[in-house]
Amino acid sequence: LPPRESWFIDGFFQYKRWPEMFYGIGPNSDEDSLTIADYQIITIHQKAYKNLGRKLFAGLQLRYMNSYDIKYYDEGGEEINAPDVTGKNGGAYFGFGFALLKDERNSVLTPTRDYYLELSNYLYLEALGSKTQYATVLLDARKYINFNTGNKHVLALQGKALLTFGEPPFMELAKMGGKAIMRGYLEGRYRDKQYIQLQAE
Fold this sequence. Notes:
Order of helices and strands: EEEEEEEEEEEE
Strand content: over 45%
Shape: globular
Number of helices: 0
Helix content: under 10%
Largest sheet: 10 strands, antiparallel
Radius of gyration: 19 Å
C-alpha cells in the first residue's frame, strides 16, 4: 500500500502587473462602460490540511494581498478618474480561514471517475491590517463519469459558488468566466458579490 498522506500543504507567492477589464458591478453592467484598471499586486497564499481519514482533509489557510500604483484608463488609453468602488485606491488585506477537502478522484491532472468537494472561507478583518472588512465562502464540487470506454469518453461536471460579504475590493468580487470555468466569458466581464457557475465537458 502507498504511504498514508498525513498532511496536504500548498501555497504560492505571486507578483502581477496586468491590466484588468472592469465593466461595473452586477448583471446589468454596460458593455460600453469599459474601464481598464492598471495596477500592481502582491499575493501570498498558504494552506495546510490535515488528513482525517477516508481522503477527507481539514485545515487552515492564510492569504495576504496588497494592490498599489493603480491607474485607470478608458478604452482609448486616456487616463481617467477612478470609478466609485471599494478598493479603487488599492490597499493591503490579510485574511484567514478554514477549509474542508474531500478528494476521491483517481487522478489530479486527468481524472476519469469519482468526485472532488471543497468548502472554504476567508475572513478579512481591519484589526489584522485589512483596509476593509469582508468575508468569502467558496464551494467547489466536481463529478467525473466514465462510460467504460477505456477512459476515452468521460463526462466532467462542475458547480462552483463564491459568496462575498461586507466590503470586498472590486478585484476580489466574484467574477464570472476565466481560464478555469465558463471559459467563453472574459473573466471580470460580469462580477458581483455572489456567483454560482455550472459547466460540463
